[in-house]
Amino acid sequence: MAGHVIQRIYSGNRKSGDTVGKKEIKKIYQKPPLFSLKDLGEIMTIIILFPLACILSPKLWKIFLWPLAEVYYFTARGTKKNASDIKKIGDIYFESTNPEKIELAWVNNSFEQRALYFRECRPGGWNPEINVRGTELIDKALSSGKGVILWVAPFFFNNLIVKKGLYQAGYRIIHLSSFSHGPSVSKLGIRYFNPLFIRQENKFLEERIVIQPASRSGSIKTGPDFTHIRKLEKRLRENFLVTIGSEPGFGQKTIFAPFLKGKMPLATGAPALSLGTGSALIPVVTLRKGPLNFEVIIENPLEIPTEGNRHDKVNILLNNFSQTVETYVLKHPESFRFWHKIIVE
Amino acid sequence: MDARRENILIRIKGILSKLELLNGAGILDEKTGLLGKGLGLDSVEIVQMVSALEEEFSLTINDDDLLPDHFLTLGSLISFLEDNYLK
Predict the structure, then answer these.
(1) Chain B closest CA to A221's CA: distance in Å?
(2) Three-state SS at B33
């Protein structure tokens, strides 16, 4: 396995639409460490959380898991970091909602998201109610024969619930994934911890197309090979449904899109792929309605701009996607996963 | 540069222009980078360029040949095509 972790470093004070690439992005290709301190946390999480998640009903997680999450919040993360995160949420978010409440919800959701994967490991998995709204939009887009790209918004529970929900709704999904997908980025973690999570998702996928690490082919300075995109294009031509995540800041080339009072760095891959293949580009949002109740919302396809050059069109699509995400974050701030990746103006 | 390479270079430039991948670059020659410094193309743009190359030169590039080393510069791309597909 092994490989290289691609990291992105960017500075603030950028205008929306600025490209974070070329000179401005400093790509660091470095071998993942064999083991990291974070992995100790993963081991503890598995030892403590795994049995609780499997044995306790999700209706009881609020009573038993949230206190664990709050112990972590107040101790392991440190009060200085907490204060900085809370201030950042307060700087970004429009509404007057208590940012501490949002931060606490973030911590609770992080724990529950992990617990969902562990519960899925049970024989027979688990059966939450997942209401997928808007499937007629997928069907209409598929009727064009050019495939559909579902651009999954960066909310909690999206990774597992979107795949499970669409699978249960009868769709065959191709998912684009990083080789290091999962909670760990160390060599041992990628090999032993991450498969625990990946296997649960794979149950609902037709195929997972993996972005291979740089070391597999090509020189260290240039990044991964291109077969994953080639495969993705082929699947879209075969009229498949493809899901692509939108974790802010993760991607070969990213552009800042306005988001609340800040900016969100979004990868250009999904819109560029849509422009090149003619596939519909559809935002998908995941919301949790209750302990055993989720909603997957299929939004209207993003309108492909007809004017402007390629860069302009990608920019417009990214901005429209960011606006869609913003609409949901304003109503459900506890659902947003990546406050720490937002650049504050 | 020999005439054959010059011709390939001109055709590749045409493809890059048509796909709007020139990103405001000035003079393009064999030393112009495609990845990172230079045009700064990402994976999606490279693959779209490859599809256009296949159409332009009536060839099919194997997936196994989609290695970053072949796309470092315009020169490396021309050499790759000449050595493997345009004999």
Answers:
(1) 9
(2) strand
